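Workshop exercise sheet. Pairs work together: one partner reads the sequence aloud, the other fills in the structure field after running the prediction. Swap roles for the next sheet.
Pair: D.N. / O.F.
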Amino acid sequence: MVKVKVFVTLKESVLDPQGKAVSNALQSLGYDEIHDVRIGKYMELSVEPSGRDIETVVREACEKLLSNPVIEDFRYEIEEAVIR
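Structure field:
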């Protein structure tokens, strides 16, 4: 079993109203050092190795379900085997 960390973020060209709201709230709380916030999604997958390449499986899952390729980008990290 391998652990895969998936990070999904809005593309730079897409407005992020949730991130803007958090940024404004932080400014109002006095966190003047923080100038921009972008909100994204984080997922952890446990993937059982099979006859298919793990990177192919994860990339296809991200493209077909875990992200919206029109407005989001994704990246992933594959970690060592998970022992259960």
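Discussion prompt: The mean pLDDT is 94. What would you look at next?
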